[in-house]
Amino acid sequence: MAGYNLEAAPLKDDVDIVIPTIRSLDFLEQWRPFLQHYHLIIVQDGDPSINIRVPDGYDYELYNRNDINRILGPRASCISYKDGGCRCFGFMVSKKKYIYTIDDDCFVAKDPSGKEINVIAQHIKNLETPSTPHYFNTLYDPFRDGTDFVRGYPFSLREGVQTAISHGLWLNIPDYDAPTQLVKPRERNTRYVDAVMTIPKGVLYPMCGMNLAFNRELIGPAMYFGLMGEGQPISRYDDMWAGWAAKVVCDHLGFGVKTGLPYLWHSKASNPFVNLKKEHKGLHWQEEMVPFFQNLRLSKESDTATKCYMELSKMTKENLTKVDPYFENLADAMVTWIEAWDELNPPVKNEACDEELNPPVKKGTIKDVKAK
Ligand SMILES: O=c1ccn([C@@H]2O[C@H](COP(=O)(O)OP(=O)(O)O[C@H]3O[C@@H](CO)[C@H](O)[C@H]3O)[C@@H](O)[C@H]2O)c(=O)[nH]1
Ligand SMILES: [Mn+2]
Predict the structure, then answer these.
(1) Could you give the CA distance from residue 224 to residue 206 in angstroms, rounded to a whole number?
(2) Which residues sit with their C-beta closer than 6 Å to ligand 1?
(3) Which of 14, 91, 134, 285 is the most buried (most CB within 10 A)?
């Protein structure tokens, strides 16, 4: 692929870019310098008979609802329809180590010096350096250039843990819920905070899927964006559900989650009145869902993301069905998701000794992390 500087595309063979879309992919024109060397997995939501155009020069796979039904058969029921949560189908069909997922109404942002931000380069830095979930560093990420652990930071904790998730932020339209958008229609985020930080162990956060990267080998099976959209009582909590679940799984398995840089420019295409209709049950249920995730404890037998997720599905059924019968369906869909994940991502066997080549990742270990 000619034309753009390969240095702007680090680890190009290890990253897939997943885009859910009900609109157009013209936004990719502006991203060429940063995204054109990567492979795209586009999940076309809504009417599958609509032909969407992918800008020339991009290498991509495109899946519509008919494709999802054909590939997953009855298990396609676990993939949301008419909700951005359909993106997780892309996570499942990818074979790469890292996923970067971005929405179709997002554009390249500039840092305060006026330089265009290379989102993937920053996410990869975040993912390839350790996290520090056990003790907070007041100068934020000690693995960034020009900073370190502050005085009083125990040396025994400076190795950190492997990072599984990098949550990027947004300039212009912030990720507010519909009521907040409705009362502050003109609010724009102009504040560029030059910081990356680890979200401490035991602390949950509202994960947004708009500008998100993760290590699918470590946490992929826990990145299920739930059952939302058409036919369901709730929408737009897809990324929240995935974020809460993935964080408790990361905490349990000893992996870290970072938030902060990189920023992108969000020029919101969704409508807050429509969003309020889609979100209103979630606005109530989050008061029960968050304490559920805060209080659950996974067992020590759950030593992989898959096993954690199966245990989580059982706990969802036991604890949240009293909130609404919907959660029973969600819990079943979580199991279906894992079955489908395993079918598309079978464990790799070493035929010489008949051992699995991808055994459970040892808790809290860091592979290939360069010491500072
Ligand atoms: O039915 C749908 C609706 C949307 N999409 C695609 O999903 C992403 C995000 O959609 P949108 O820009 O409308 O959503 P926002 O309100 O701006 O952003 C947040 O909502 C989250 C919850 O879904 C989302 O992760 C956040 O970023 C776009 O690419 C749409 O095209 C869809 O596929 N199906
Ligand atoms: Mn948007």
Answers:
(1) 15
(2) 20-23, 45, 82-84, 86, 103-105, 175, 208-210, 229, 236, 238-239, 268-270
(3) 91
Tell how far the Cα of 103 is from the centroid of ligand 2, in angstroms.
6
Burial class (CB in 10 A: 0-12, 13-18, 19+), 313: buried
Instruction: Report the nearest atom of ligand 1 relative to the CA of 235.
Output: 23
> pLDDT digits over 151-180, tens only?
999 999 999 999 999 999 999 999 999 999
pLDDT value of position 327: 98
Query: What separation in angstroms does the CA of 249 have from each of 24, 118, 124, 180, 261?
Result: 34, 29, 21, 30, 23
> Which atom from ligand 1 is nearest to the alpha carbon of 103?
29
Query: Omega before 360 cis (within 30°)?
Result: no
CB-neighbour burial class of residue 167 (10 A; exposed 0-12, middle 13-18, buried 19+): buried
Q: Which residue minimizes the CA distance to atom 21 of ligand 1?
A: 236
Best residue for ligand 1 mutational test, from 23, 24, 86, 270 (most atoms within 8 Å of Cβ): 270
Q: How far is the CA of 155 from the centre of ligand 2 (A)?
A: 42
How far apart CA 146 and CA 129 sit, in angstroms, is 14
Query: How many whole angstroms separate alpha carbon 153 and alpha carbon 151?
Result: 6
For the entire predicted model, the pTM comes to 0.94
Residues whose CB is less than 8 angstroms from the CB of residue 145 and which lie 6 or more positions away in sequence, other chains included: none
- What ipTM does the predicted assembly reach? 0.98
DSSP alpha helix (H) spans, 36-118: 65-72, 88-93
